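ok new one. same drill as before - structure tokens go in, u give me an amino acid for every spot. 372 of them this time. try not to just spam alanines like last time pls lmao
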């Protein structure tokens, strides 16, 4: 078929994102790209600051905004897996100096395999929120350790913040003091807690639909994990060093970076960032969602399309964080302004005053008065 059509065809044994969650599908797709695409083409790069962005899916144009930021500072983005990706770029991904992992759940497998085969370290990043974006950019610059790159990073951050901080402050006045519940896939329930915190919104519950323990508790728990139903559906790849292209990582450098808080080859999970007393719940069903909303009464619930309209009928604004309700981008500095605007507009809508949630139409306590 490839010969007949003159194109590359990748066949994946992954019917219906097989397994108990779509996480198995992610793993299978990682394996296929790693085996049949990455490393199938070579070239040299004049720019020493080469990166891949892994787990960025260009929702609402997020990937384009991240690419703009990286390019302006002076990085060369070899490939993005897989938002707005080009197959020819993915073939060259093994040439990067470092991998930047945005969505840990969907693509940590790729980062690990590239580390083993080519010696490429990875850094956990988060481009959602102003402070998170600043921290991510500073961490990447620290990784390369180039003085001019570090100075360009600081100049860029200053320039962007001068443009966006007044705008965000304007929206924050109509947002702060509220509460939010997050139930999203990937690393989004973690990432969006940070931007909500910047806007003065407390996250009172967060959870994932297809997470693993390490997404909540961090990679330190991986040695404790046992094979589950998903594991039986996934091919186990035996990854060996590529003798001709493996580059030995500088272990002393990685250790010193970790000591100053740069998450090289590591992810601490969502738990350490969650507020004391907040709930962390995995794999919510619709009944649990409705009861939690009734009990906690959040000001906004961020999830996906299957929950959106049920939640809004309860008088609670609902924001999709899988498609952004056709808005975006939400990543980076410009994306933070758009997100603040959209959340402000969700709260400002007069529609909510016309909707009464079930608990306002029914008594919370029902009893009979007994007379002696």
């Amino acid at each position: 078929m490839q010969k007949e059509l003159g194109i590359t065809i990748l066949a994946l044994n992954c019917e219906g994102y097989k397994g108990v969650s779509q996480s198995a599908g992610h793993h299978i797709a990682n394996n296929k790209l790693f085996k049949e695409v990455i490393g199938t083409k070579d070239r040299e790069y004049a720019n020493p600051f080469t990166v891949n962005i892994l787990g960025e899916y260009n929702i609402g144009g997020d990937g384009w905004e991240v690419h703009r930021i990286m390019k302006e500072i002076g990085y060369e983005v070899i490939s993005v897996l897989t938002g707005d990706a080009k197959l020819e770029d993915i073939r060259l991904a093994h040439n990067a100096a470092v991998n930047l992992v945005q969505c840990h759940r969907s693509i940590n497998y790729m980062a690990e395999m590239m580390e083993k085969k080519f010696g490429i370290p990875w850094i956990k990043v988060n481009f959602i929120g102003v402070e998170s974006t600043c921290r991510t950019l500073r961490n990447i610059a620290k990784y390369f350790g180039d003085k001019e790159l570090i100075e360009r990073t600081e100049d860029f951050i200053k320039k962007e913040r001068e443009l966006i901080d007044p705008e965000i402050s304007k929206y924050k006045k109509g947002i702060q003091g509220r509460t939010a519940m997050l139930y999203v896939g990937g690393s989004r329930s973690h990432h969006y807690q940070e931007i909500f915190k910047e806007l003065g919104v407390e996250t009172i519950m967060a959870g994932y639909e297809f997470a693993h323990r390490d997404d909540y508790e961090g990679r330190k728990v991986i040695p404790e994990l046992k094979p589950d139903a998903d594991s039986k559906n996934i091919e186990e790849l035996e990854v060996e060093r590529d003798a001709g292209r493996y580059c030995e990582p500088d272990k002393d450098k990685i250790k010193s970076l970790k000591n100053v808080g740069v998450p090289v080859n590591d992810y601490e999970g969502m738990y350490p960032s969650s507020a004391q007393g907040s709930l962390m719940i995995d794999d919510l069903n619709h009944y649990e969602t409705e009861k939690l909303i009734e009990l906690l009464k959040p000001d906004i619930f961020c999830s996906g399309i299957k929950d959106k309209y049920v939640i809004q009928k309860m008088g609670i604004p609902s924001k999709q964080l899988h498609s952004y309700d056709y808005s975006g981008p939400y990543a980076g500095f410009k994306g933070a302004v758009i997100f603040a605007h959209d959340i402000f507009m969700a709260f400002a809508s007069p529609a909510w005053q016309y909707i009464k949630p079930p608990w306002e139409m029914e008594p919370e306590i029902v009893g009979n008065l007994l007379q002696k």
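The chain has a mean pLDDT of 93. and btw The CA atoms of residues 123 and 263 lie 6 Å apart.
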